[in-house]
Design a protein that fits this description.
Elements (H helix, E strand, L loop, with lengths): L4 E5 L4 H12 L3 E6 L18 E5 L5 H7 L5 E4 L7 H5 L1 H21 L4 E7 L22 H20 L2 E7 L1 E3 L12 H10 L4 E4 L5 E2 L1 E3 H13 L5 E5 L5 E2 H8 L3 E4 L14 H6 L8 H10 L12 H7 L1 H7 L1
Parallel strand pairs: 1-2, 1-4, 2-3, 4-5, 5-6, 6-11, 7-10, 8-13
Antiparallel strand pairs: 9-12
Helix pairs in contact: 1-7, 2-4, 4-5
C-alpha cells in the first residue's frame, strides 16, 4: 500500500518535531520544512535517519519552493511561526512577514497542489487578557500585541481560503503547551525553560507576581494527538480550542518541581488565567487530553538534562532583560 505524504512546516521546532515523530510512527512519508531559526536538528535526533523523512531547509517566505515541496501532499500541518509577546512589539515587520505572509504562501502552495486539508497551529492569545474564562470558540477576540494579531490574521486567511477556494482546514487554538524539547532561550519564553534551568543550578524559581496566576497547561503529546485527529476528522473548516479545561497556578508548579522560589514584579500584559472550554474539540475531532499536569511535570523532570545549557535567569538579570515588557505593556 502506497504511503500517504504529508508536509509539516516548522517541523524542527518544539511541537513540530513531536508531530513529525508521531506521523513517522503512523507510517506517513513526511516532508519537514524549517528555516532552523528557532527549530533545532537536535530535536530530530531520534528519527532524523528515518527513510520516510525528507528535510527541507526552507523558509515559508520562499513561495516557489513551497509550491514544489507540497507536490503530492495530502495534508499540510502549518506550525511555522514567530512567537513571544515583547519581541513581536519590537519587530512587528518580521512577525507580519512570517505569521501572515508566510501563511498566505502556505495556503497558495496548498491550493496549487490540491492539498486535501491544512491543519493550522493557532493561538489562544486571540482571546486577549480580560475576557472571562473559560474561553469558548465564540468568545470575543481581543488581540493585544502583534504576535496575537498576526497569528489570528493567519487563522482568518485560512478560514477565507476555506470559504472561497474550498481548501479544507482545521485551526487549533493552542493554550499553554509544555513538554520535552520546549524552547530554552529567552527571558520571554515558556516558564518551564526558566524554572528547569534554575532547578539544575539549585537557584530559586523566579515567580512573576504572587504566583497565583493560573494557566491551562497542555502536554505536547496531547497536542500532537489533536493535530493528528484533526487531520483525519471528517469535520472540516473548524476552529477548536486545545487545552485541558483545567488551570493550575505557578505556585503549584513550583511545588511539583520542588524548589525554593523568589517573587519578582508582576508583568503587565499577561492574563490572570487562561482556561479552555474543549467541548467542541471533543465533539468535532473526537479528542481529549490524557496526560495529567502532575504526570506531565514528572516527565519534564525526567528529561531535565534538556535544559542544562539553557540561559540561567535570576531576580536581577531577568528584571533587566524584561524591561521592555513594562515599557510597552504598562
Amino acid at each position: 500500500m502506497k504511503k500517504i505524504t504529508v508536509a509539516v512546516t516548522g517541523g524542527a521546532g518544539f511541537i513540530g518535531s513531536h508531530l513529525v515523530e508521531r506521523l513517522l510512527k503512523e507510517n506517513y512519508k513526511v516532508k519537514l520544512i524549517d528555516n532552523f531559526y528557532n527549530g533545532k536538528k537536535a530535536n530530530l535526533k531520534d528519527f532524523i535517519n528515518n527513510k520516510n523523512l525528507t528535510i527541507y531547509k526552507t523558509d515559508i517566505l520562499e513561495k516557489k519552493k513551497l509550491d514544489k515541496i507540497f507536490t503530492n501532499c495530502k495534508f499540510v500541518f502549518h506550525l511555522a511561526a514567530l512567537a513571544d509577546i515583547v519581541p513581536s512589539i519590537e519587530k512587528p515587520q518580521a512577525y507580519y512577514d512570517t505569521n501572515v505572509t508566510g501563511t498566505f504562501n502556505v495556503l497558495e502552495a496548498a491550493k496549487k497542489n490540491n492539498v486535501e486539508k491544512i491543519i493550522y497551529s493557532a493561538s489562544s492569545s486571540c482571546y486577549g487578557i480580560k475576557n472571562n474564562p473559560p474561553f469558548t470558540e465564540n468568545s470575543s477576540i481581543s488581540t493585544e500585541y502583534p504576535y496575537a494579531l498576526t497569528k489570528y490574521l493567519g487563522e482568518q486567511l485560512i478560514s477565507h481560503w476555506g470559504k472561497i477556494y474550498k481548501l479544507n482546514f482545521a485551526s487549533l487554538r493552542l493554550f499553554n503547551v509544555y513538554g520535552p524539547r520546549s524552547r530554552t532561550s529567552g527571558a520571554y519564553g515558556a516558564v518551564f525553560g526558566v524554572f528547569l534551568a534554575q532547578k539544575i543550578s539549585n537557584q530559586p524559581f523566579t515567580v512573576v507576581g504572587d504566583g497565583k496566576q493560573r494557566r491551562d497547561f497542555i502536554y505536547v503529546g496531547d497536542v500532537v494527538d489533536a493535530f493528528y485527529k484533526a487531520a483525519l476528522s471528517k469535520n472540516n473548516n473548524i476552529k477548536v480550542n486545545i487545552g485541558t479545561g483545567k488551570a493550575h497556578s505557578i505556585n503549584y508548579l513550583t511545588t511539583l518541581l520542588k524548589g525554593e522560589k523568589v517573587y519578582i514584579p508582576k508583568r503587565p500584559g499577561e492574563p490572570d488565567i487562561t482556561l479552555a472550554d474543549i467541548k467542541l474539540a471533543k465533539k468535532l475531532i473526537k479528542w481529549k487530553p490524557t496526560t495529567s499536569f502532575e504526570n506531565g511535570v514528572e516527565i519534564m523532570l525526567k528529561n531535565i538534562d534538556n535544559w542544562i545549557n539553557a540561559p540561567l535567569w535570576n531576580k536581577n538579570n531577568i528584571s533587566k532583560a524584561t524591561k521592555n515588557w513594562f515599557k510597552y505593556l504598562s
